[in-house]
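Listing S7. Sequence submitted for prediction.
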Amino acid sequence: MPPLTAAPMRPTTGPVARFALLSLALFPLLAGLLSLALGQDANWDLRNYHWYNAYAWWTGRGDLDVAPAQVATFYNPTLDLPFYLLAQALPARAVGFLMGAVQGLNVLPLFGLSWALLAGLEPTRRSAAALALALIGFFGGGQLGLLGTTFYDNVISLFVLGSAWVVLARAAVIWGGPSAVSGPAFAAVALAGLLVGSAVGLKQPTLPYAVGLCFAFLVVGGGFWRRVLLSFFFGLGVIAGMALFSGHWMWHLWTEYRNPLFPYFNHIFKSPWGVPEAYRDDKFIPPGLIQALLFPFAWVLNPKLVGEILFRDLRVPVAYVVLLATPLLLLWGRIKGRRPDPALPARRPALYLLVAGALTYLVWLKLFSIYRYLIPLEMLAPVLIVAAVMLWPLPGKARTAIALTLLLLVSVTIRPGNWHRIDWTDRFVAVDIPPIPDPDHTIILQTGYAPTAFLISGFPPQIPFYRIHSYFIHPDQKDILLNRRMAERIAAHQGDIYVLLAHWEEWTDQHILPYYGLKADLMACKPVTSTLDEPMKLCPVRRETRTLSPG
């Protein structure tokens, strides 16, 4: 049986090894082509904020607009900028190919992790097995649904998987030698922390991975001080990564809105710009202990328990069962007097990865329970399955047979999701608007829940957009400063006013615009068309004497 020992990835010779290296080199190109075959991304979040946030930051709109992308207006735009800039310079197909190619790079850390855990195999089998594990990890139902999209869960996964790879590749330094760890060990775990901290800085829902990878050192790491110091220096790296990629944005939110995470956790920061609520999306979190324990099986039967689309992937549920069984089997082996397999001399790196995966899942379950945020763990799950099964106190052939059966099961049962794709267009985002007679003296309001912020990039840049109603804000929230700002600007405006809305949300003319003493002329609406969505309506608005101003 292969020993689960950690070792750095080194080049090997032989046709299989060369094939594995060639496959790794070419795989990003294959992923780019697969992205093209799947179609152009037109997901809801792209239309709501991924495009607008980068556009607004790059063009310096500042506070010209007020919450046009709903709550997501206040997200860190750093991760969206590369896509936005590429889409300005390149045709849509080229952008889609590059997005898929970048996401295809995930096979590299997956291969590295697998290589580290299969150090006992002779080079040919080791190369083949590591490549197979990497490919099985990449071709998950959740991950394939995200290929070429702007959700970025399979982009920040490069940082997450890279962090785990650094730990396992430097396992001899981190866990070897005397009980007191050395400077190189501190440097290795700090680098690993920096990587996953960078992921958190770019996308805050990555936090469970930072917690899991950090606190796993407290469980698996030798003596007390070794465990504490490893976790401490990993945590320092996490903080540095977060500061590097989100420090500027947190400072902006603090100086502008008195909440560095605005609007989240506003029940703690109590910013006057929002209501004193947490603003958390907790609708997917299982409501009780039994539901939480059965959650992986429940979402297999009903994928909408963890998101908005249908998909199927058994990687995480199977890893969940395997991880639950592992401590029981290890205890059984100890009771039966079965000694650990002498071919497994370095169990600690494998145990670290298993504990980190388990802790990550538990934090995710408590905070989000949204499957997209679990994509890095979906990719890692085949490695976790093999790592766990190889620790079981069973004959070597039995362990191999079980591992292969489980990997085959998760490979043949996938059903990729679809977050809304369209046929490829010339430009990723193109917007066609009706004539605006006096753009220098025009404001445009947004109402309803449709994601219309991406359309703003097609309008004259001097026109402000105010979202007076959305999932995030409502005119009857009279005390928050965002509403007051909009009410004052609308009241002081002397020029033309329009409202941008979806045809299924004309009800807002009756129920939202009257708060500001406004009425839309729905018979005079003109279409606003785009590459990403069906036409929206741009309707002229007039003032009425009756006013229900929230100011």
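Caption to Listing S7: primary sequence and predicted structure tokens for the chain studied. The two ends are 72 Å apart (CA to CA). Residues 431-543 form one domain.
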